[in-house]
Amino acid sequence: MKPSESHNRQGEIVISIKGLYKSFDDNHVLQGIDFELHKGENVVVLGRSGSGKSVLIKIIAGLMKPDKGTVKVLGKEVQNATKKELRELRLKIGFLFQHSALYDSMTVRENLEFPLRRNVRDLSQAKIDEAVKDALEAVGLIDTAEQLPSELSGGQQKRIGIARTLIMKPEMILYDEPTAGLDPLTSYEINDLINEVQHRYKTSSVIITHDLVCAKKTGDRLVMLIDGKFLREGDFEEVFDTDDERVKGFYDYNFIQ
Predict the structure, then answer these.
(1) Which residue would you say has higher pLDDT here, 152 or 247?
(2) Could you write out the DSSP letters of every residue in 42-83?
(3) Is the alpha carbon torsion for 239, 47, 217, 57 positive or negative?
(4) Does pTM surpass 0.85?
(5) N or C: which end of the chain has fewer CB within 10 A?
(6) Helices 108-119 & 125-138, crossing angle to 10 degrees?
(7) Residue 257 above 90 pLDDT?
């Protein structure tokens, strides 16, 4: 747990999930999930591949409907929202996909401009240029504006994905495996950037990962998803201070020096 962040849990609740269930045929992925995210807080959802972590954030973003339960995000009940309400809600939510999801045929600048041009009307070119510059400076890649994604490293692509998320000034960010496929040093840099974004932009975030280094570095609070339920919750030490073999096995599998 980051030492100075425990106070965030006293803040306003920006995500409230109660009694959430989701199955795909006989695969019962989520089985009675209760969850809260507070304003300004980074919560890590830990779990193995296929445990339902990505399903959870797709439900939070309104990209998938639950079978049962209530999901309230920034005061709006997602499962009952109209298409218009969902569109407006998603403008307040940044979604960092596992593979950055940049447009290969667009330069970095064009990738960053795209969400602004699509969602914000009557924005002058000067304002767009300023927003692109600010977002690139925030991720430390101001010199990449005219490059194509294919010319960037995996870590740089991930940073540009974060910049494209930040350009819309989201209140909340959903990170899907932010360090997947990255070498340890680059992963460390991305973890630092996630913390910088939290402090600079005052975002609230859900971070989906199976990377314990990422969890320990970025999480104000951790929840562990096993067999469709949140089995453990607390800071890093609290979550792993247990004799439960399922939890110990997850720790041993990752192995932190």
Answers:
(1) 152
(2) EEEEE--TTSSHHHHHHHHTTSS--SEEEEEETTEEGGG--H
(3) negative
(4) yes
(5) C
(6) 120
(7) no
Is a pLDDT exceeding 70 seen at residue 7? no
- Distance, in Å, from the CA atom of 193 to the CA atom of 174, rounded to the nearest integer, reads 14
What is the spatial distance between Cα 228 and Cα 214, in angstroms, rounded to a whole number? 22
Dump pLDDT digits (tens) for 172-211: 999 999 998 899 999 999 999 999 999 999 999 999 998 9
Domain ranges of the chain: 6-92+170-254
Distance CA 16, CA 34 (A): 8
138 φ/ψ angles, rounded to the nearest 5 degrees = -65, -30
Strand 13-24 with 172-176, pairing: unpaired
The rounded distance, in Å, linking the Cα atoms of 102 and 112 is 9
pLDDT at 2: 63
Over range 136-148, report the average pLDDT.
Answer: 95
Does domain 6-92+170-254 fall under CATH 3.10.20.30? My reply is no
- Structure tokens given for 95: 């979604």
- Cβ atoms of 173 and 203 closer than 8 Å: yes
CA–CA dist 14, 39 (Å, integer): 6
Residues in the chain: 257
- Identity of residue 187: S
